[in-house]
# Entry
Amino acid sequence: MKFLKPTLVAVALVTAMGCQQEAKQEEAKAPVLDTQEQKQAYGLGASIGMYMQRNLEEQEKLGLALDKELIINGFVDSVNGKSAINQEEIQALLTNLDATMKAKQQEKAVADAEASLAEGQKFLDENAKKEGVVVTESGIQYQVLVEGEGEKPAATDTVKVHYKGTFLNGEEFDSSYKRNQPATFPLNRVIAGWTEGVQLMPVGSKYKFTIPSDLAYGPNGNPPRIPGNSVLEFEIELLEIQKAAEAPKVGDDGHSH
# Structure
């Protein structure tokens, strides 16, 4: 909602609405939603409640569970002008809560990246043993699905490809096939694993690549979609090469001398 920023203050206030409804669910009567204004009021509360629920779930994942009853009490007291904590202290407390959340998120990101690194290396070690898998000197692993007969691109060329990218668990994170639109890009402007790997492919080929994280997005990943230290798999189909234009020769103005 444009008029209500999802600040911690709003979050703390709004949680009570959802929690209070949940606490009194058995005894509460169904809301009267006869008029447009009544529906708007209920919709506003429901929207904020859903937002708050997602925040509470995220906090719980990080090991921080706030007491819902106290959140309800704080909301009701403040609405009635009887808050037990003044505004300045509330702001300080919420600023501290925000800092705590960020610290826990950073700790989780580091732990996840370390686990991903170990998981990725184990996968690479096992995948390298599979029949038909070739491992390059840099560590890229690939398997020929279809071998084309066209020429191979240079790093300076622009290529047109169809592709899909997946995590090691098989979850797809990107696909030109789903967009029904091939991708076109300079081969030296993508991740190192693509730059090296696609140069191995004759036009008309389809290869499956397993790319180590240091040749993909590295320890920082590509937020929010790709976590740090992710080994990625791509199926790539090379459709076309667009050669880099040759630099004009000195003195070549199109006239004979």
In short: The beta strands are 134-135, 141-146, 158-166, 172-175, 183-186, 206-211, 232-242. The radius of gyration is 28 Å. The CA atoms of residues 94 and 141 lie 48 Å apart. Residues 1-23 have pLDDT under 50 and may be disordered.
